[in-house]
Design brief:
Elements: E1 9-14, H1 20-31, E2 37-41, H2 46-54, H3 60-73, H4 82-107, E3 111-115, H5 139-157, E4 162-167, H6 170-176, H7 182-192, E5 202-206, H8 212-229
Parallel strand pairs: 1-3, 1-4, 2-3, 4-5
Helix pairs in contact: 2-3, 4-5
Length: 231
């Protein structure tokens, strides 16, 4: 197994239903044995909690709609109240903790594959800051918003060596993930093409147009090029 303290960080990004998990798994299988490699999930995975709540008998869907309503209200002109802002900030800290662990693995000499990657190109977009109002009325919410932005800027400053962006259309995404909210899925798909990842090289692949084998091969070719260029 090759040892190299300067192995790359490869970010796999895309909306739910774009094939991130499948591609990550295939790339891990391909890379293991060649390099010390780690798969790091950099999302918050709060959507899984919401979908579990929605499946609860009797009150599940009602609770899920209530939570979604509070999230939308938090993005109003006045911004969230202090309690809601605290919860949203704590959820962002979960991503920061995962990101910090990823950086530790990189320092230890691992090649990193990430499922998702934090960004600041689109506030409130896919994997971006959740406190979207720049200057909320509540002083605590304002302070938390400022701190969340600083943390996201810190993460974004560690740009990946390669971003593999998996594009998908809404029909395909909803067919693959029928338990997801349509409005949330549309927002994620619309924001993904606007992400720049601080100027990192991006390869665009289209999971609703290209066969899986072709996507995997193109991803492997792009990673090979990065490994060749990496000192």
């Amino acid at each position: 197994m090759k040892q190299n303290v300067n192995l790359p960080v490869i970010a796999i990004i895309g909306a739910d239903g774009s094939g991130k998990s499948t591609i990550c798994s295939e790339l891990m299988t391909w890379l293991e044995g060649r390099y010390p490699v780690r798969l790091c999930h950099l999302g918050r995975q709060t959507g899984n909690i919401g979908r579990m709540i929605a499946k609860l008998p009797f009150l599940g869907k009602k609770l899920d709609h209530k939570i979604a309503g509070k999230a939308n209200k938090a993005r109003s002109d006045k911004g969230p109240k202090a309690g809601v802002a605290c919860i949203m900030f704590l959820l962002s800290l979960k991503r920061v903790y995962r990101f910090y662990k990823m950086l530790r693995f990189k320092k230890q000499g691992f090649l990193i594959i990430t499922d998702r990657y934090p960004q600041i190109s689109v506030i409130g977009g896919l994997d971006g800051p959740d406190l979207t109002i720049d200057h909320p009325d509540n002083i605590i919410s304002r302070w938390l918003t400022q701190w969340e932005r600083r943390l996201y800027r810190w993460m974004a400053d560690h740009k990946p060596d390669l971003v593999i962006r998996l594009n998908v259309d809404i029909d395909t995404a909803m067919k693959r993930k029928p338990d997801h909210r349509l409005s949330s899925m549309v927002k994620k798909i619309e924001s993904i093409e606007k992400l720049t990842f601080n100027g990192a090289p991006i390869i665009d692949l289209y999971s609703h147009k290209q066969p899986l084998e072709e996507i995997i091969q193109e991803a492997k070719n792009a990673i090979r090029e990065v490994l060749i260029k990496k000192p």
